[in-house]
Amino acid sequence: LRAKYAPIIREDDYLEGIVVLLQDVTEYEKLENMRKEFVANVSHELKTPLTTIKSYTETLLDGAMEDKGLATQFLGVVVSEADRMTRLVQDLLQLSNLDYKQGKWNKKEININDIVKSAVLKLEVSAKNKRQHFVHTSYDDEIYVFADKDKMEQVLLNILSNAIKYTAEEGKIEVQVQLKSSYVQIIIRDNGIGIPKEDLPRIFERFYRVDKARSREMGGTGLGLSIAKQIIEAHKGAIEIFSEEKKQGTRVVITLPTTNEGLALN
Ligand code: ADP
Asked: Which of 225, 232, 244, 250 to mutate to test the pocket of ligand 1 (most atoms within 8 A of CB)?
């Protein structure tokens, strides 16, 4: 609690009273701390690849360039670190767009199955490279939601690519679309490494990762889930993540209102 005082003094110097302003700053301080933490995280995440790029380039300049094989290997690292920075900046831009341009959605009535199909198609190659089984089932063909197509596809790409990343070779990834009365559920289930119980409550926070090293190795930025949550909530939906036990896999459930009934409502 923050307090401010101001005396009320009459012209003849008589103290008439005191105005006391009590302000609850807990929420403010919480936001301020989150902001500071975010800036610290961004700086750290950008600094890490920059340090690597600089040291590899210096080693090349110091003579490693003479060795063609070594030079190629080092340049490969430089490119992949630059790619990481690009991904991070893209995710940050996307977050900042979501923060500041809430109103600018291109929402239309769309069939959710079309979006799921197109996301699955885009990631099929990555799943195939890991010899994973990728299954998409839907009990109803026509399930309409009032949504921004690109943003919704982004959510699915984020969730599905996590499922692929955090599931071993030859694992199984299932996408199920189920129509309930006035809403639809998209369930993405994998039989990968799972998420420990103690990490689940914070998993949607920006930059929160169970295993930083593993996420980086997989090319993750730690922002995918927070972006997904923000988009889903802007569609009056919900996203939940379940993981029973270690190594039992992960289940992500996205719930969205449908326009199948009561079209006029929208
Ligand atoms: P990242 O870019 O690190 O994947 P995300 O925000 O997408 O960031 O996810 C945050 C963290 O949640 C990941 O680092 C990982 O630890 C965990 N996670 C997300 N999806 C899964 C999954 N399907 N299986 C296991 N862990 C997951």
From this structure: 225
Instruction: Check if 250 has its Cβ closer than 6 Å to any atom of ligand 1.
Output: yes
Q: Please report the ipTM that was assigned to this predicted complex.
A: 0.98
Say whether pLDDT at 61 is over 50. Answer: yes
How far away, in angstroms, is 65 Cα from ligand 1 center?
37
Query: What's the rounded Cα separation, in Å, for the pair 23 and 254?
Result: 38
H/E run at residue 190 = strand 183-190
Q: How far apart are CA 211 and CA 193, in angstroms?
A: 11
- What is the 203 CA–ligand 1 centroid distance (Å)? 8
pLDDT digits (tens, 9 = 90+) for 142-171: 899 999 999 999 999 999 999 999 999 999
Query: Among positive and negative, which fits the CA dihedral 131, 252, 216, 71?
Result: positive
Identify the CA nearest to 190 among candidates 261, 253, 111, 143. 253
Tokens at 40, concatenated: 């610290």
Whole-number Å distance, alpha carbon 219 to ligand 1 midpoint, is 11
Contact 180, 161 (CB under 8 A): no
Largest CA distance in the chain: 90
pLDDT at 266: 40
Is the pLDDT assigned to residue 263 strictly greater than 60? no
Torsion sign (Cα): 60, 48, 157, 146: negative
Burial of 257 (0-12, 13-18, 19+ CB in 10 A): middle
**Ligand 1 pocket member 162 (CB < 6 A):** yes
